[in-house]
Target: Hydroxymethylpyrimidine/phosphomethylpyrimidine kinase
Amino acid sequence: MIPRVLSIAGTDPTGGAGIHADLKSIGALGGYGMAVVTALVAQNTQGVRAVHVPPVEFLTEQLEAVSDDVRIDAVKLGMLHSAPLIAVVSDWLSRTRPPIIVLDPVMVATSGDALIDRRATDAIRDLCTRVDLITPNIPELAVLAGATPATTWDEAVVQATGLASSSGTTVLLKGGHLPSDDCPDAIVTASGTTTIVGRRVPTSTTHGTGCSLSSAMATLAASGLSWPDALVRAKAWLVGAIEHGESLHVGHGNGPVDHFHELRPHLPGAGWCDGVWALTNDVRARVDECEFIRGLQDGSLDQARFRWYLAQDALYLADYSRVLARASALAPTITEQAFWAQCAQNALTTETQLHRSYLDGAVHEPGVTTLAYTNHLHAVAGTGAYAEIVAALLPCFWLYADLGRRMVSSDHAAHPYHDWLRTYADPAFDEATRTAIAITDRAAQDAGIEQRARMRAGFERSMRHELDFFLAPTRRS
Ligand SMILES: Nc1ncnc2c1ncn2[C@@H]1O[C@H](COP(=O)(O)OP(=O)(O)O)[C@@H](O)[C@H]1O
Ligand SMILES: Cc1ncc(COP(=O)(O)OP(=O)(O)O)c(N)n1
Model:
């Protein structure tokens, strides 16, 4: 039987959170989604602008319109906004008695905006005793537990166990807000904890993850899974959705996740780049953590090390430009030919202009890591087909555009590396990166299995060379 799942929540016109995320999540996990709106929220990926709450009588009308006609297998409660709305929902739950009720005690959005009336907290606490699963994030757990927000997983487990005991129900403890490299979640009852380990995806596309997880849990429980089994499945799906979020290109703040990422493998090659990008998550996490990148971002990087890096990068770009020209020569269309030719020229002009502004004009010798990277690119260009060449070229675009986009928040006119930060956060560079990704996706679509494997190997190797390139300046004595 296909579970009929009702979301009672607020809206998000950009489709990332609230009932929109709920309906997508319910559908993605095999349920039939329905929705009753509690509040209309003018929000986007950057924040909440306004909240409009229709009269409470209209909430009752909506709830009864559904329950008078449809047999409901599970209910997910999201943004309930204020005590009068909670009273209406609570009364309706007592009368209709849905078999499964999941409460996401929504209080604050990722942007920091309040989504609940301060006086409603007591009503939410009371509602906790009447549901089957509560899914608070770390700040919400602290409010419900009457404590300060946990800073460690062990502390959070203690708070969740207390909440499970006081409310007499099950708590899904979420590790998203903890400052750790991993991202565990757990099913916590008064008598024990089942932890489901998970890795943390280094991304800002996490808008609506709480809404999505709670709706997924309601849907999976209504399909017959136990809470721990439902969490294993929901978490695997959600991590994939988070990983694919960036390719949606929705908004300029914390973007949404891609709820339907599991539906796309039937498109051969489509999303190929996203797949290999995800395969290099670990390497990119090491780039983020390395001394050079941290120092570049906060301005503490030693100037001599930066100049050495730039000198190596100028040598690298001269060779990179030759390989871009080779891609242009092999391109199957005039448009792609022109695109790569333009990139080859930019590598020699726009990017090296930045280098010249910092360097003294002295001639430098390529270091071992520079030679290793350019040798790899020339080897692919010498023997590989067009698809393999563009795949090997891609990490240099994508990694710098990604770093530029994420690091620009640290930039200011007096930042010692202002020009570098500005060059790679340039929207034109981001646009060129998207074109390179689209071309590589198309090339992967036309490639056979073996050629796609070579593309993948070339992409991964280039990404490892990128990491070595950033490690080299600080490894020198
Ligand atoms: N960067 C991330 N990588 C992987 N999983 C994440 C990440 N951020 C959040 N999650 C997961 O998303 C879900 C929601 O978590 P959390 O952010 O704690 O709640 P909320 O979205 O309600 O603030 C949890 O399953 C959490 O583990
Ligand atoms: C209408 C609405 N409901 C809930 C939220 C918060 O959603 P959540 O899943 O906790 O995601 P973040 O906003 O924390 O990313 C919302 N924003 N809007």
In short: Residues 311 and 363 are 9 Å apart (CA to CA). The chain has two domains: 4-250, 272-475. The first strand starts at residue 4 and ends at 9.
